Amino acid sequence: MGVKIIGVVSSIQMHSQEGFSSYERIFANKDYLQAVEECGGIPLILPITEDYLKVKEQVKLVDKVIITGGVDINPFYYGEESIFNNGTIMPARDSYDFMIIKACEELNKPILGICRGLQSINVYYGGTLYQHIPDVKGNHLQHSQRSDYHVAVHKIRINENTKLHSILGKEAEVNSFHHQAVKGVAKGFKISAVSSDGVIEGIENIEGRTIMGVQWHPEKMYLKYENMKNIFNAFINDYE
């Protein structure tokens, strides 16, 4: 089968440097790339573009795609307006994520969505989001942690008969860096994991090529938690 080339979706950052005016920088966090390499894949950063034909050519170059974390998705995409506690939105990233998903669909390429990546998958396929978890009745866990990135802050329960269950078992400890979460699950998908306060922590498609998403950041945990490394290993080497 050969070594898998894994496309890693980039994001945009405004960068300032003394002597230069501010400019946009396209980047991907190093830990995504290291996690792919640790599990035998070759990471390839996919730069954001507004041209769908170029997006599709990018996806042709890779075997699978990881949609990374980032800022909030524009609520217009799921039929809502931004509430007071909604965060920063980035139209170029929204558009690019959705074009990546469309290209993967047309080219039959598997997807792993992490944090925002999970939310992009859910919204693209018709699901909805909670714009601010603390506003949801019954929420009591720390979903936007103040501890170091690799530290687990709450547990998740993992549903049987899911890919995530085959990787992690029935329970896992996870970190948490999000204030939004899946509300209505997209048609054709099922919940793979939830937290004790009911926040959806994982989804995956019911049939066809692998499309799976996790709400936490395993790329920030894999060096200290072997089970988090197993997520990347299974996605890169096992699932088609």
Automatic annotation (TrEMBL):
One of its GO terms (molecular function) is hydrolase activity. It holds the Pfam family Peptidase_C26. It comes from the Bacteria. Keywords: Hydrolase. PROSITE patterns: GATASE_TYPE_1. InterPro entries: Class_I_gatase-like (IPR029062), Peptidase_C26 (IPR011697), PuuD-like (IPR044668). This is Gamma-glutamyl-gamma-aminobutyrate hydrolase family protein. It comes from Clostridium malenominatum.
